[in-house]
Design brief:
The protein is α/β, with parallel strands linked by helices. It has nine helices and eight strands.
């Protein structure tokens, strides 16, 4: 297992400077990481820095609360793709999920997926706010709406990924869609454990450090 093939090297903190974003891209190139994940305002910087490297570009929609208007999420997603993103990580509407408005949750995911077509859509569940049944239903909504991945967390909630959540999600989604474990994953051993539990992508700000420690 080549860990670098699974890592979305991530920098989503609000005070990230251009120099930090450029460093993120350099690290991704140096360690041949799968992708970088940044806010939309940094896409042009990353597109230029990553040109010709094969490193994918990921951006977010409805981040980090998920409470944006559906039209806003669709606009963010469409513009992100136009600016060079290969994948969109959107935050599910957690309030709708908690209210039992599952049809609205699924319809919104479907609208964002329709907006980006064959580009990859990951749906951030923010599992720390959901009970077991809500997590299961959210996975069903994501599959039914045509999403390509479910993702555990934004990294901005009170709790990130857990091994228990990833194991449960794998039971529910099987091979229908991928699983991105994200939030609090800081070392290579932990990342590999998540992959062994069924995750197919790791979101972390420590991607370069992980690979450096292995070399």
């Amino acid at each position: 297992m080549l860990l670098e093939n699974y890592i979305d090297h991530t920098l989503l903190k609000p005070d990230a400077s251009i120099l930090e974003i450029e460093k993120l891209c350099e690290e991704a190139k140096t360690y041949h990481l799968y992708a970088v994940c940044v806010h939309g305002c940094h896409l042009e910087t990353c597109k230029e820095a990553l040109y010709g490297t094969g490193v994918k570009l990921v951006t977010v929609a409805g981040f980090p609360t998920g409470a944006h208007l559906t039209e806003t999420k669709c606009f963010e997603a469409r513009l992100g793709i136009e600016l060079g993103a290969d994948e969109i990580d959107m935050v599910m509407n957690i309030g709708w999920m908690k209210s039992g408005d599952y049809g609205l949750v699924g319809a919104e995911i479907a609208q964002v997926k329709k907006t980006i077509g064959d580009k990859v859509l990951k749906v951030i569940l923010e599992t720390c706010y959901l009970d077991r049944n809500e997590k299961r239903l959210a996975c069903e909504m994501a599959i039914g709406a045509g999403a390509d991945f479910v993702k555990t967390s934004t990294g901005f909630g009170p709790l990130g990924a857990t091994l228990e959540d990833v194991a449960l999600i794998k039971q529910w989604v099987g091979d229908a869609i991928g699983i991105k474990a994200s939030g609090g994953i800081k070392d290579a051993a932990t990342a590999k454990k998540y992959l062994s539990m069924g995750a197919s992508r790791i979101g972390t700000s420590s991607g370069a450090a992980m690979l450096a420690a292995l070399n």
